[in-house]
Every structure is written in C-alpha cells, then in structure tokens.
Amino acid sequence: MLAADTFARMAAGVGTVARCAPATVRLILTAFATGGHVLLEDLPGMGKTTLARALAAVTGGTARRVQCTPDLLPSDITGVTIFNERTREFEFHPGPAFTNVLIVDEINRTSPKTQSALLEVMQERQVTVDGTAHPVPRPFLVVATQNPVDLEGTFPLPEAQLDRFLMRLPLGYPGEEAELSLMRGSAVGSPEDLAAVLDSAEMARLSDVAERVIFAEPVYQYVLRLAQRTRGHARLRAGVSMRASIALCQAARMYALTDGRVYVTPEDIKALAGPVWGHRLVPLSGAATAEESAVLLDEVLAEVPVPVPHENRG
C-alpha cells in the first residue's frame, strides 16, 4: 500500500538521526498524520528535540523551539501586536507558534498562565491576540517535553492541558549498538539534512485515506467497553473522556495504515491504549505516572473480552 510505503520512508529518515525505538517512531508519525500533539516524557539527553526536528524535516515542514522557563510569557509563544509609528497602524508579529512543528521544551517549567496560552492553538490551530484570530500553518503539531523525575520548581500540567495531547510517549534508552556508536563518536546525521518524504497536501491525503479505513462495529464496541471499564475502576477518580475514545479510534485508523492495512484490529487498540489514554487517567492518588497508567490499563485490557477475529473487518 502506498500509505505504508510513505510511512516506511519517513520512519527510515527519522531513524537515521533519532536514536529511539522504531515502535516509538511509528507512534509519533501516527500522531502527526492524525493531527494530534505529542508529549515526550523522559530524562534529559534522550534525543527528544532531535526527534521532533527530524519529524518536521521528513514532512517538509518547519520547526521552531521554545525553551520554557518560569518567566516565559504567553506572547513569547503566540506573538504580539506592536504599533508601527511609520504606518500609524498596529502590526501583528507572529511568535514561534507559527510553524509546522512547535517544540515546547520542558513545558512543566513554565507558569500555568503560559501553559494555557497553548490550549487555543493546540485545539483550534489559531491564536487570538488583541481580539484578532490568526491561523497557524497546516499541518501543525506540538511536541512538548518534560522530565518525569526532576519535579522541583515545576508546574504540573492540568487535566485540560493533558487532554489536548493525543499521545504521551517515553523515548527510552537507545539500543546497545546505537549507544556504542554514539560513544565512539560515529557521525550522526542532522535533521536539517533529511529529505522531505511528503508535503502538506500529501499529508492531507493520508488523512483522507485513513477516514476510509474499516472500523468494524465489534471493535467500536471493544473501545467503548474499555472506556467504560476505566470509568468504573476502583483506583481511578476519573476514567477516559469521550474525547479520549474518539482520539483512540482516529489514531487506530492511521496506525493500521502504517502497517499496510485498511482495517483496524483489536491489537491496534491494545497497542495505542497506553500512549493515547495513559495520561488521561486520574487515579485517586493524583496525576498518573506512566508506570502507574501502564499497570492500570493492563488490568483493564485483561478484564475486557477481545472481539473474535472474524468480527473485526466488518
């Protein structure tokens, strides 16, 4: 299938500069093609920023980076209106948000006020400054990073902000050969040197193809039963929302395309449940860590019966 070949070429390009697992690359490409944002949660020095820049390169887009600090202002992301004395008019000066891939480094180190400035652009693909809406380029993806260990001086993301991210992904350590290669000083390519595999128009066509992927009724019912089980879990204060169920279905269609299929299987749902739903769970103890979410979702997946194979293709 042409879509699968496109994903394979994008993954190959990203893999030449980003030293992370192929499964992670597949997931982040799925998120971007679906039109969803990604929260990369891992330790410093794991290549999170390089991965985001490589993603922009293979999709023929631009990337800009914002380093979050406690004194970062909303206008430092969205832009500002300035009075031009020569023309005697106010002019809008776009901020870093006007790009295809916006890298928001250490998002939990900036204030809640600045974090909230991202809500509109992540949901509506526009920023409103002084009452005027300004659309950002398409496609548009926020790749935010945060360190799950160093929490001193941070501002945890509220549930409304977390819900705007399609996936939360860890990168993990590179494989032995990749790490040895880096230790030996072997040359690593630069994201800027990567050739574009597709453009924005072709990305839109991928979305059109994904809409035609078969999603059988038993698989819809499977997603619903999983969602309902999280809502009634004894160790959860809140399960996943309707937005989360819809997001999982949309991502599953694109995920199937990456495998060259035109139908979604329960295995796709299982593979995506953690990345798409993990950060949306609200345990009784507070915000869910990636490890706690994984345990809870494993319990849910084990308790809900899987549709039989012949039911899955509609």
From TrEMBL:
Gene3D superfamilies: Magnesium chelatase subunit I, C-Terminal domain, P-loop containing nucleotide triphosphate hydrolases. CDD domains: AAA. Residues 34-175 form the AAA+ ATPase domain. It comes from the Bacteria. InterPro entries: AAA+_ATPase (IPR003593), ATPase_AAA-3 (IPR011703), CbbQ/NirQ/NorQ/GpvN (IPR050764), ChlI/MoxR_AAA_lid (IPR041628), P-loop_NTPase (IPR027417). SUPFAM superfamilies: P-loop containing nucleoside triphosphate hydrolases. This is MoxR family ATPase. It comes from Actinomadura vinacea.
